Amino acid sequence: MEINARKEKNATVVEVTGKMDAVSSPEFEKKLLELMGEGEKDFVIDFAALYYISSAGLRVILATAKKLKEMQGKLLLSSLKDMVKEVFEISGFAAIIPIYESVEAALADL
């Protein structure tokens, strides 16, 4: 998994490439916690290049969303592809965490 973060408009956009599973999800969590420690609290997670997410990845997403809510921050997801989008819908996460078609649409909603 590859993670790239950049500041864009009013949020931090985090691009995730590859797969997020039990092995790679701690790296994703560490990166988000590091960014939160630097004062960032509004995130758009760009999953355009993510092709797989496991329950471990979902756990990190949920835990991060809860931490950001406590900080009066937001976690928005964008650009979910077929398999990843299906996992979010089946797990019920699509009803909990806002999902957008594009990074631009998510940024516009912040």
CATH topology: Transcription Regulator spoIIAA
CATH superfamily: STAS domain
Mean of residue pLDDT values: 95
Largest sheet composition? 5 strands, mixed
Strand order in the sheet with the most strands = 1-2-3-4-5
Distance between the ends: 27 Å
Q: What percentage of the residues does DSSP assign to strands (E)?
A: 25-35%
| Uncertain parts | none
Write down the CATH class: Alpha Beta
Q: Domain count, please report it.
A: 1
The Rg value, from CA coordinates, equals 12 Å
What's the short story on this structure?
The chain is α/β, with parallel strands linked by helices. The chain contains 4 helices and 5 strands; from the N terminus they run ββαβαβαβα.
Note down, in words, how this protein is organized.
42% of the residues lie in helices and 33% in strands. The chain has a single domain (2-105), classed as STAS domain (Transcription Regulator spoIIAA). It is of the alpha/beta class and 110 residues long. The protein has a five-stranded mixed sheet. The protein has helices at 25-37, 55-70, 82-91, 103-109, and strands at residues 2-8, 11-20, 42-53, 74-78, 99-100. β3 (42-53), α2 (55-70) and β4 form a beta-alpha-beta unit. The termini are far apart. The chain is globular, with a radius of gyration of 12 Å.
